[in-house]
Write a structure and sequence with these properties.
The protein is of the alpha+beta class. It has 5 helices and 6 strands; from the N terminus they run ααββαββββαα. The chain has a 6-stranded mixed beta sheet with strand order 2-1-6-5-4-3.
Length: 162
Amino acid sequence: MYHRIVKRVVQRTFVNLNHADYQAVMASYVPDVQHTMAGEHALGGTRHTLEAVEQWYKRLFAVFGAIRFTVRNMLIQGMPWDTKIAVKVEIAATLRDGRPYSNQLAMFVDLKWGRITRIDMHEDTQKLAATLQEIARMGVAEAAAAPITSQVYAMETARCPN
């Protein structure tokens, strides 16, 4: 029963992302989450604060605009205090020049009492990095920016206080 509930929650998370509602997703993270995307590119790196994770989601949608996630497979193991999830996701988007982008994403998620404590994302990094370079050439500067990490985010906000 518990695993069915978790599966529905994960599927709902991707429905929210398909509507660019990353705020609903943010509510499921613990404050000291470890949020990692493999690769040396604008979406790569590891974040350890909610503020940095939120900046990452903002960048994702700034770079890709409407992006669609389709869950293809999911494995769930464990109990509420230590749940492990593996998800295979297909990604689809239309680039600003009208060309389609597609890729596959493998996500590994740790939950503790329904909250995300760790997430590791692995996409075809060569394909993603090349696409980010193309998007940057289309005029989207964030596609060529340094990865958002908790340290980079803290330095940027210290330089540019609101």
